[in-house]
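Try it yourself: sequence plus magnesium ion, in.
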Amino acid sequence: MSLAAAARPALAADPALRPVISFHGVGKTYPNGTEALHDINLSIFQQDFVFLVGASGAGKSSLVRLLIREEVSTSGRIFVDGQELSRMARRRLPRLRRKFGIVFQDYKLLPRSTVAQNVAFALQVTKPGQRHLREKVEESLWIVGLEDKVHKFPDELSGGEQQRVAIARALVHRPPIFVADEPTGNLDPDTSWGIVQLLLQINHRGTTVVMATHNREVVDLVRRRVVAIEGGRIVRDEAQGQYLREGDATLVSGGNR
Amino acid sequence: MSLAAAARPALAADPALRPVISFHGVGKTYPNGTEALHDINLSIFQQDFVFLVGASGAGKSSLVRLLIREEVSTSGRIFVDGQELSRMARRRLPRLRRKFGIVFQDYKLLPRSTVAQNVAFALQVTKPGQRHLREKVEESLWIVGLEDKVHKFPDELSGGEQQRVAIARALVHRPPIFVADEPTGNLDPDTSWGIVQLLLQINHRGTTVVMATHNREVVDLVRRRVVAIEGGRIVRDEAQGQYLREGDATLVSGGNR
Amino acid sequence: MITLLATLRFTLVSAVQNFWRNLAVSLAATCTMGAILLFIGGILLGTHMLNQMLTAEQAKASNIKIYLEDGVSLGSIANLQSELRADPRVSAVHFENKDDAAKEASSQVENFSESLKVLGSNPLPASLNLDLHRLADLPAIDTMARRNAIVQRGNLATDYNPAIIDKLQTLITWAWRFAVGFLIVFGTLSVVIIMISIRTAVLVRRREVEIMKLVGATDWFVRGPFILEGVIGGVIAAAISGTVIAAAYKPAVDHLRSTLFFFPLSYDGSYLAVVALLLFAAGIGLGAFGSYLGVRRFLTV
Amino acid sequence: MITLLATLRFTLVSAVQNFWRNLAVSLAATCTMGAILLFIGGILLGTHMLNQMLTAEQAKASNIKIYLEDGVSLGSIANLQSELRADPRVSAVHFENKDDAAKEASSQVENFSESLKVLGSNPLPASLNLDLHRLADLPAIDTMARRNAIVQRGNLATDYNPAIIDKLQTLITWAWRFAVGFLIVFGTLSVVIIMISIRTAVLVRRREVEIMKLVGATDWFVRGPFILEGVIGGVIAAAISGTVIAAAYKPAVDHLRSTLFFFPLSYDGSYLAVVALLLFAAGIGLGAFGSYLGVRRFLTV
Ligand SMILES: Nc1ncnc2c1ncn2[C@@H]1O[C@H](COP(=O)(O)OP(=O)(O)OP(=O)(O)O)[C@@H](O)[C@H]1O
Ligand SMILES: Nc1ncnc2c1ncn2[C@@H]1O[C@H](COP(=O)(O)OP(=O)(O)OP(=O)(O)O)[C@@H](O)[C@H]1O
Ligand SMILES: [Mg+2]
Ligand SMILES: [Mg+2]
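Structure, out:
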């Protein structure tokens, strides 16, 4: 048992310290027969900062998809804020999803809306009737450094700029849980580091952060809880970046997969 | 002037050593008014291995787009294999593009074709009547480690798997010029390293390789020519990875862009 | 309250924006709908004209001549005449005496007046000519007339010819069946085509709908703009087809009337208003319902 | 050669696959096209039936009665009769003597035979009844007949009534204009609808077309499968609409003939074959041309 996972169960009776997210023996088999996840057990508490790491195809995105119920687990149970997801009625999904700020691996921007509309849309959906909409949208875009792209359309942006729009959209409604699937894949090291600093800040202010990433530098430097997935199973769950040291050996040996 | 760029001009008279790709004072302004590139001068010779680096939105993808004439330059001249691109007739574009193997930043896979069909399609287009189609496709997919995903559709793949299909598609017809736009953004370090090893191999066998990337580790370890772009201008063109050392300072200071 | 207003505003703005940004597809759906509404409107007006014509023809055809015995008193004829006038099925009664009958016959038959002169007396009977409201009442009136004492006995009591009347009635029934059948077939077809075209249009936006849902939008939040967009398209389609029909109706009537002067057509403005109303209702209904069905299947994310 | 075969194979496989994978959109386009072809076929058959009817009605209407002077010799009548028979515009000649005329008159006019008896002699003239091939030849025949010595002088020389003939001819002209106009309007509309629906279907594949082009495909390599797909859709649409029309034609004719027995309809198998051929040609042409237009604008990458 890792440090992070082992430290808390004793406190689970205290409702304030009940995990925000918990997976109990969760498995996911896609309709085409691919078994993406097996027997996942995972508890994430409020204000946790969790890195999900693992090779390509390990199951990180699948785990994120289960979390926001984009997909339904085929076995086990998932709780978010005490609610069991697989038994949740379809009409209650919007409320669940509004708790999250999500950066999808493929961004999922509305192609026919401008950058500002993409961000504003998410704010309107999650907090209908919000005041100072425009200011909040502009602030959010300023944070990711896109204040001069406000009225551009997604296909007029570079890859990294699109990724930052996705990040701005996920942050704009100040969600209690921030989930990002490889949010720095198309960002240069400096910009990536800026984003990570930002996530550390919002985490410090109380937001739970779950981030699937391949960025070894970031994982190593930030030194937070790391959950490693391999072939659909959690193979490590550690509070600090031992991952990097092991990984270094692989990097130098440079094996073909 | 950098080592790579300075070493060759004297030999330019020798047709064998004429640059495969050359940019002469090239600028690109998109229809929406964004000036993506200014006065780009760049010569790439056969068997060169060139990294394009630069911050998000610097203009790397724009340069790649000009190269395959997905976009037309708004000023200056671009030569590929001695042909000037802006004066090329539309019907000759297919022949130009078949010289390239291209990995797009957003992959550009056919969504309703299987992995095998996506790769086979590119081979059929570039080398009509090719024999042993299936074997070549399978070999190419085996190289990127997707032999068990042959009959899946792109949206049944993880982000990294899709990226590897794009790489397999670009390699399958053994193009003389391989152009990759951020081909390891969604790959874990080990897989990334495998891909880079592969590119080094094909480069060794004669293929010209141009690779836009944010992956600092790779640029540093491979130690080949690095062209750095900033705000649409080439700011450095060096034979070795001094980029990394400078970058390190930024990484540690961790500025918000 | 603010929430609701904001959502409504969003819905309206999105709908108009979507319509504009997707102008090609929107116009495709709108044009299809417009063409169909035009046809429906055309058929409605066409059947109306047909109805006018058939009603007039029926009125023309639905008259009966009751032959009277020679030498009955004018009083009893007047009696029968007023009795028939009181009958609700009869619209007009006209008395024709023996001289009128002879005049009519000589205008129709060659050399008849000469024959009459040779004959010395007029063999043709006086008659009462009745116009009925409905063709279907002819047999009953025929039976009734035959029972009256002053009416001629036997086969020739009236000029009612069941065979011809039957033919005419069959023709009318068939014309109606055709019109109604055409309307039903075309109506069904139009709904299917509209659903298909809207579904194709929505297919393009499938990804958008999914993204909206994943970000936390409710079904109605997603649906709203699409349905409103459908309604906008429907209203435009109805406006276009309505204008075309309204503009074409009067010239068509005038032209048909002047060329085919034996067709008793008239311009019926109030019916045109009804058609226009129907077109708008159909456009809005089809647009909204089509969009609703079109989006529904993508909302399951 | 191998290249060509490989490309052809690719084209065929892609076309069929695209059709299947996009079944919803493909079927949408196919159904629209099928519905339109059904209508076009229906109109073609309908106008054919109308034509049959009008031809028969024309034949019925295009007869003329030439009244002969009393007491002309049978020889000169036979002369005139054979002369008229030789005329290419005349299809049949029938002699009616004074007794036949009287019989016909008494069957039409009440008490006529009584009048005749009183009169002692028959005032009605003998006549030659001509059937013409074409209604339009009536005036010429009328003029010609009046010049013959044995034909009665004056207004009553023939029973040719220009007013009625004009009305009938106007009616026929108008019926044709309606049919042709309907066909033109509907044909144009159908091409537009098909183009729109195919363009919408292609819109979904816009990205695919762009990707193919960027990888190095030629325009024809990209176009091929789409055009073939359009052709497949067109053939299916033609097959469906052709089958429906072929199946419905005979029962429709039988039914119309038995119910509306005064319409001289007949089942015309060879015309049906022509219609079927036309439908297939139209389906293939529309499908291919629509796809060609639909893809064209996305090929500029
Ligand atoms: N929609 C899907 N249908 C079927 N199989 C899928 C689907 N999505 C993912 N998979 C498969 O499930 C496995 C896990 O995929 P997942 O996307 O979770 O990987 P990942 O860890 O996010 O990888 P990456 O780092 O490459 O994004 C992979 O083998 C993938 O092929
Ligand atoms: N199609 C387009 N239309 C208008 N502007 C564009 C378009 N594509 C890119 N741009 C703009 O041109 C600039 C350069 O973009 P480019 O995609 O070349 O950057 P990049 O170096 O590839 O960045 P990244 O690393 O984020 O992919 C950016 O400011 C971008 O917003
Ligand atoms: Mg993933
Ligand atoms: Mg880029």
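One thing you can check immediately is this: Residues A 158-159; B 60-61, 105, 181 surround magnesium ion (ligand 4) (CB under 6 Å).
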